[in-house]
From TrEMBL:
<feature type="transmembrane region" description="Helical">
    <location>
        <begin position="102"/>
        <end position="122"/>
    </location>
</feature>
<keyword id="KW-0472">Membrane</keyword>
<feature type="transmembrane region" description="Helical">
    <location>
        <begin position="38"/>
        <end position="64"/>
    </location>
</feature>
<keyword id="KW-0812">Transmembrane</keyword>
<protein>
    <submittedName>
        <fullName>Molybdopterin-dependent oxidoreductase</fullName>
    </submittedName>
</protein>
<dbReference type="InterPro" id="IPR008335">
    <property type="entry name" value="Mopterin_OxRdtase_euk"/>
</dbReference>
<feature type="transmembrane region" description="Helical">
    <location>
        <begin position="174"/>
        <end position="192"/>
    </location>
</feature>
<dbReference type="InterPro" id="IPR000572">
    <property type="entry name" value="OxRdtase_Mopterin-bd_dom"/>
</dbReference>
<dbReference type="Pfam" id="PF00174">
    <property type="entry name" value="Oxidored_molyb"/>
</dbReference>
<dbReference type="InterPro" id="IPR036374">
    <property type="entry name" value="OxRdtase_Mopterin-bd_sf"/>
</dbReference>
<feature type="domain" description="Oxidoreductase molybdopterin-binding">
    <location>
        <begin position="307"/>
        <end position="444"/>
    </location>
</feature>
<feature type="compositionally biased region" description="Low complexity">
    <location>
        <begin position="217"/>
        <end position="228"/>
    </location>
</feature>
<keyword id="KW-1133">Transmembrane helix</keyword>
<feature type="region of interest" description="Disordered">
    <location>
        <begin position="203"/>
        <end position="239"/>
    </location>
</feature>
<feature type="transmembrane region" description="Helical">
    <location>
        <begin position="143"/>
        <end position="162"/>
    </location>
</feature>
Length: 447
């Protein structure tokens, strides 16, 4: 007959349940790596990196020309959220290549730092009570906004880079709003925590009340309750044996960021660096042979452009005070041709080196349309039947720049179908999607 196990009494069961640690119990978190100094170092790196991300992100929205015409970027709220918008310059010609390349590269490189930072402070997300004071409540709220905003921005940004954006809704609108939510938490948390982080980095963890040494937990072993003031509230009160030092953990985070830098940054350069950019699109061998062998952001087939659309019957329509004018490709080639060496730089962060474009100046076409002296902005329409940015608006300063062309050739050869044959826009320092391909109509002046 099997031996019968004794049944636990209710008091014993309750004592057992009370003995079980939950995430709200500081003793639940036992990694010896966590600590205020470890978190402070990561915080300083993020302070610099996230500030750069936010600034370059706002510059990207300004470059998309949201204050001239609603057909370009879907940036919402041209009102108070668009207070910073300004006329994006055309020089230096590599400006957008630099700012957006930095935005995307820094965002990718910061992923290990962000994850390590979130891991280092996760015990605080479960700390009870939720708010001990008004200041503590503000800190917890800023932490939620910071973590939620950062995760949302990084996830949507990485999806846009790697998968041409599969997130539901408009990437531009969601990313824009998400940036401001993140900024609210970022600024609040920075104001509250920067003095403490600087103090910890300069002086270490001060000796707490009751003799707790630097680097130890704020709650001595065997005690419960809120941590003592002036002690390391992130360190585990009952840590497991160390298998990795905090310096080693920081080195691992840095190595991860360095690996991401090496395998992603090259998409903005030619040669070997582009070939080792294995983790980002457009990082492999340049597409195709010959003068048109450089990256494209969308192919003719992807937007349903057929040979019939771009054949002998194609005509460019130019509208303005002079009426509606129509030109064949041969007639455009017969006009005075100009050259400009300009790159293509895309919002996903990849770019080409300078390509040698040749075609008709937009300012010359504006003169034919009835604006011989001071050309206005132009509304550009493409033949493409699918995809975003079928229509785009360029500012007057972009039209007036002598390097802004309706390009017909590149690198001494006619444009390929994927590069916009029979004619495309090329403008210095503009995002790639504003360099409209397969141009059908140019409308100068007010719509």
């Amino acid at each position: 007959m099997p031996e019968r196990r004794p049944t636990r009494s209710l008091p014993e069961t309750l004592r057992t349940l009370r003995a079980l640690r939950t995430p709200a119990d500081p003793g639940f978190w036992r990694s010896p790596v966590r600590g205020a100094r470890f978190t402070a170092v990561l915080g300083v790196v993020l302070l610099v990196g996230l500030t750069l991300l936010f600034v370059t992100g706002l510059l990207s929205y300004a470059a998309y020309n949201p204050d001239l015409n609603p057909v370009n970027d879907k940036t919402p709220g041209k009102g108070w959220l668009g207070f910073y918008l300004f006329s994006w310059p055309t020089g230096p010609h590599w400006l957008y290549r630099l700012t957006q390349g930095l935005h995307v590269t820094v965002g990718i490189v910061l992923v290990p730092v962000l994850l390590a930072k979130l891991w280092s402070v996760i015990p605080r997300l479960f700390a009870l009570p939720p708010a001990r004071s008004v200041g503590h409540a503000l800190e917890r709220l800023s932490l939620l906004l910071l973590i939620g905003g950062a995760l949302f921005q990084f996830v949507t940004g990485l999806l846009n880079i790697q998968l041409d954006y599969l997130f539901p809704g408009s990437f531009y609108t969601l990313h824009f709003y998400g940036a401001w939510v993140f900024l609210a938490g970022f600024v609040t948390h920075t104001v509250l925590k920067t003095p403490q982080a600087v103090r910890v980095l300069r002086q270490g963890i001060p000796r707490g009340e009751g003799g707790t040494r630097r680097g130890e937990s704020g709650t001595p072993r065997g005690e419960s309750g809120p941590p003592r003031r002036g002690t390391d509230t992130l360190a585990a009160p009952d840590p497991l044996p160390a298998t990795l030092s905090r310096r080693g953990a920081l080195a691992m985070v840095g190595a991860g960021s360095l690996l991401l830098l090496i395998t992603s940054a090259g998409r903005s350069f030619d040669g070997p660096l582009r070939r080792i950019a294995l983790l980002t699109p457009r990082g492999g061998t340049d597409p195709g042979p010959g003068p048109n062998a450089f990256q494209v952001n969308k192919t003719a087939s992807a937007v349903r452009i057929t040979p019939a659309d771009t054949g002998e019957n194609w005509r460019l329509t130019v509208r303005g005070p002079a009426g509606e004018l129509r030109f064949s490709r041969a007639e455009l080639l017969a006009m005075e041709q100009h050259s400009a060496e300009l790159p293509i730089a895309c919002v996903e962060g990849w770019s080409t080196s300078d390509q040698r474009w040749r075609g008709v100046r937009l300012a010359d076409l504006a003169a034919l349309a009835g604006y011989p002296d001071r050309p206005p902005g132009v509304f550009v329409e493409s033949l493409q039947r699918g995809g975003s940015f079928r229509k785009a608006a360029l500012r007057d300063n972009q039209v007036r720049d002598g390097r802004s062309l309706l390009a017909l050739e590149v690198n001494g050869a006619p444009l390929s179908p994927d590069h916009g044959y029979p004619a495309r826009i090329i403008v210095p320092a503009a995002p790639g999607v504003l360099n409209t391909k397969w141009v059908e109509t140019l409308t100068f002046g007010e719509l």
